[in-house]
Design brief:
CATH architecture of the largest domain in chain B: 2-Layer Sandwich
CATH superfamily of the largest domain in chain B: GAF domain
Largest sheet of chain A: 6 strands, antiparallel
Number of strands of chain A: 12
Shape of chain B: elongated
Largest interface: A-B, 44 and 44 residues
Distance between the termini of chain A: 13 Å
CATH class of chain A: Mainly Beta
CATH topology of chain A: Pnp Oxidase, Chain A
Number of helices of chain A: 4
Structural class of chain A: alpha+beta
Radius of gyration of chain B: 26 Å
Structural class of chain B: alpha+beta
Distance between the termini of chain B: 64 Å
Number of helices of chain B: 11
Number of domains of chain B: 3
Strand order of the largest sheet of chain B: 2-1-5-6-7-4-3
Shape of chain A: globular
Oligomer: heterodimer
Strand content of chain A: 25-35%
CATH class of the largest domain in chain B: Alpha Beta
CATH architecture of chain A: Roll
Amino acid sequence: MANGHAFILDREDAAFLRIGHLSILGASRGPDNIPFVARAVGYRFSTDLREVTLFFPKADAREMLAHIADNGKLAAVFSLSSTHQSLQLKGSDARVGKAVKADLELVNSYCRAFVDHLEKLGFARKAIEAMLAFEPDDLCAVTFTPSAAFSQTPGPNAGRAIGAKR
Amino acid sequence: MSLRLDGIREALDGVIPGTIATCACDGTPNVTYLSQVEYVDNEHIATSYQFFNKTRQNILENPHARVLVVHPYTAARYRLLIKYLRTETEGALFERMKAKLAGIASHTGMAGVFRLRGSDIYRVLEIECVPGRTVQAPPARNCLSALRGTAERIRVCTDLEGLFQETLGSLDAYFGIRHAMLFMLDGPAGRLYAVASRGYKESGVGSEIAVGDGVVGVAARERTPIRIGHMTSEYDYGRAIRRHIEQGGMGVILENEIPLPGLPESRSQLAVPILAAGRLLGVLFVESSEELRFGYDDEDALVALAAQLGTMIHAQQQLSDAPEEFSPSETAPSVAAGKPLLIRHYCEDDTIFVGDDYLIKGVAGSVLWTLLCDYSEKKRTSFTNKELRLDPRIHLPDIADNLEARLVLLRRRLSERESHIHIEKTGRGRFSLAVTRPLELMQIRTPLIR
């Protein structure tokens, strides 16, 4: 494993990340340390939560993919829109891969769940659908091993490191 | 840049929250949600600084950041490359963001969590339209056309009262704004008094709000528009008034307070200061029970309208102080019949009661008392603004005080209270008094017992 250690989240944070309709945004940075941000349209965790895969439309995330190829650094914030509970994962071994057919089904299922969740909160369904729209053959997968996690829920504790290293 | 910041302002309003990516000196990126992005001008935005978090730490080390915002109706996404410049902790921008943040906090269940410590100002270096699908936005009201309609309608007004009524009427007719109030400033008292309103059960004309209290008071103090899409109790003027009253003492009932009108379920509010010749004249206030009813375009239109209104109010005041060069013959007092009407005048603050009913206080009270004394003692019915301004019995707080606006207020109160006393304009800077009941005037030097 590129980071040399695995990252352990407690049961509550692990359960949070397994919610199927979190809002996800990824950030990378270029050689000049200028950051980039893009919205992910789906995500997948390995069973033990040690590996995360985020899906991005390449047309949107092109600069991020170049950054990742260059330095592997990635930060991703996962947020539940109804409560604003948020968690940020960071890693430095990100790599870009292809999205396979099973991924596409996963992403479609995520998009439906996310749109449903936001519609219940009063957002216009069509606008959220458009926000997540992508061309299937434009989808790519970014996989990384989180090496740090931070609570990002708004408030004075936002940014607090969580989880334990083993 | 091909995209202009003022062309994407709606996306900054945070209906769908924006996100900011920053980078630490060691090259670790960070990404977090933004509670607020404020349009400052075509080259600058501001974000709220609430806690010393990683984002803050990063921008102090490495000022470049990227922000992703989403248009709430079209879902168009814009990615902004920005550079941190400075943090403001007071002033118009800070107060505008503070008021808005309080609304956002209340709307998102974060009241007590969100507190603005500063406005972080960034220069916008690039705007990228993120490729992807969008939806067509619902047809929007054309604020420029509404502003033109309003401007054309009010420019023919020849007196203040007409100007106030036509302004509020135009807001309804052209902007679809059904609930609005106009406040004028009493500078030395640090208060604003309502001179006109539209869309409320009670007009509330004569009600007051302290400069600095609520949306209206903050707009006046900071001389900046305050626009809130998710109304919060913190800036609710009704609550501000209640707090003011409560500070006066427990269980005190103010007999000489006129309640402020207001929507019980107000969700969106916009208060725009009215300025002319570098002075604050008053505040134009609008509200709606719809969330996010007023956008940047409404704010722009009302600021432009307030500029015209300010110039016209200023001009009307000067014209009224120079009465037309004719001297109407003193009309005989109208026939006053029936039981005498007791008029009590409390010298302490010029509070006037007609019978048992509170009518008015302050400068307008002092004006009315002077008129009624002259009417009773000298049978006078014709008056000019100019002589009132010079009359030592009337304590105008300020040489530039808008006497004409005080008279508008007085006329409205007399008419609404069916007080048997009427004031009618007879020409520019001239008016007459008509009384339909015999009067018994009582001057009271002891303070009003509350």
